[in-house]
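I need you to check the entry underneath: sequence plus C-alpha cells. Let me know what the C-alpha cell row says about the fold.

>
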Amino acid sequence: MNANTEPRRRWFWPLAALALVALVLLAVWLLRPADEAPAPSAAATTEAPRPALTVTVAEPLREALPVRLQATGDIAAWQEASVGAEVNGLRLSSVNVNVGDAVRKGQVLAEFVRETTQADSLQARASLMQAEASYLNAKADADRARAIENTGALSPSQVAQYLTQEKVAFAQWEAAKAALSATEVRLGNTRVLAPDDGVISARTATVGAVVGAGQELFRLVRQGRLEWRGEVTPSEVDRVKVGQVVRVTAATGREVEGKVRAIAPAANPQTRNILVFVDLPRQAELKAGTFARGAFDLGQAEALTVASASVVVRDGHTFVFVIDAQGQADQRKVQTGRRVGERVEIVGGLRSGERVAVQGAGFLNQGDLVKVVP
C-alpha cells in the first residue's frame, strides 16, 4: 500500500459525515412550507385593541313615576238575580233565552202551559159574577126592609135578617173578586219575566220540564255590571280610599280602569286579607269568575330610571353595562323597581351621570371594548 494513501483515508470519513449533514440541512430548508414566515418582532405585536361592538349610551334620568299598590283578586258580578218559577206543577212550553244573552227588564224569558190556569181563571170569573148577582139581590131586599122598617110591616127580626143577608152576600162577592185576582196572578206567572236589565249567566230551564214553585230557572247578572274583588293585607288597606282609581288587568291581558266602590269592614277569616270592591266598566273581554290583577294608583314619586333596553337579565340577576371614557363596558348589578312604558326604575347599584349602554347592551360582557355612536 502506498504511504500517501493512509492520511487520505484518515480524513475521508469525517469529511463525508460533514457533507451528509450539510445536505440534510439544505433539504430541510428547501422543503419548508412556503407560507411559513419568520416570527414577528415584539414591536410588531403591540397593536391597539379593536372595539368588539357598537352601542348607544344614555345617562339615567330622574322623573316622576306613579306609585301603585299591587293586588290580586277575582272578577265577579256586581249583583246576581235568581229568576225562578212562581207556579207549581206546570210544564214549560218554551224557553226564549240562552246563557250570555242580554235581556231587558220585563222581557219574557220562558213560558208555561196556560190551558189549566186559563180554565181556573174562567171559573173564578163565573163565580164572581154569581156572587155579584147574589149581592145585588140581597142589597135590594135590605133596601126595602130599611124603607118599611118603621111602618110595622116587618118585625125587627125580619129586618135584621135582610140586613145580615146583604152583608154576607157582599163578603162572598169580595171573596170572589180575590179568587179571580189570584187566578189572574197565577195566569200571569206562566210567563217568566226578567226582573231587571242584565245578562243571563246560568240557565236550568228545559222545554217540557215540570217544575215546582221556587225552582230556579235562570241566573241574571243585574245591569251587566261586574266588579273586581281585590285582596289587600291589613297593613296596606289604609292606603286604599273609596273613589281611588284602580287599573285592573284581566286574564286576557286587557287593562281596564275602575274605581273603588267599597272596602270590606272585616278580614277574610281564612286568608286574613281584606276585600276591596272595585266597579268595572262594561267590557266584552271581562268574564265573571276569572282571575285578575290590579294596581291601586297612590300618586307619584321621583325615581332614577333607564331605558328598558339597558336592563339585561342573566342567571336570575339584573345588570346594566356602564361605559367609561375609554369605551370599556363594566357589568353592574342593579336592583329594579317600577316599570312604566319603556322606562325602568333603578333602586340601587347605579348613580346619576354614569353612561349606560342602551342599544346592544344584551350582547356585551364584562370588560368588552365598545364603540359609542350617537
User: Anything to note?
Assistant: The chain has four domains: 1-30, 53-68+302-372, 70-78+225-299, 80-203.
